Amino acid sequence: MRLGQARGAATRQDRYSRLHRDREAAPKLRTMFPVVEQLRFELSFEGGGAATPVSQSHILHPPARAYFSFPCPYADCDGRFELAAAVHAAVEDPSHRIEGVLECAGSRVSDFRSKPLCRLRLHFALTAVCAPAH
Ligand SMILES: [Zn+2]
Predict the structure, then answer these.
(1) Using an 8 Å Cβ cutoff, are 76 and 11 in contact?
(2) How many A from CA of 119 to the centre of ligand 1?
């Protein structure tokens, strides 16, 4: 059982200000991964309902916050995709590239009666561009 009422009562704006706070509290990318010059996220989506969200790409540079939590693109969903583990794997892997699939564990709060699980699938490809070893 999820937190139900309390969680559903949070507005989208609440969720975004929390996200913003979390991001501001994260260390900089260059602090966490000194060798990384660029992190490239390519995100595409599958399933989850009638309108599948469009693909996204994000690039993070060393001064950016090392914050790897992406909100589900559905406006009425409270889920997030957590890519921190994939980022660590991509930095450590010799190919510096990781692909994988995550399923959204959030629920679609606009359907008040049933709050169906979102289950949107994220296909991600993550590339870490690293400085050559000295
Ligand atoms: Zn979702």
Answers:
(1) no
(2) 6
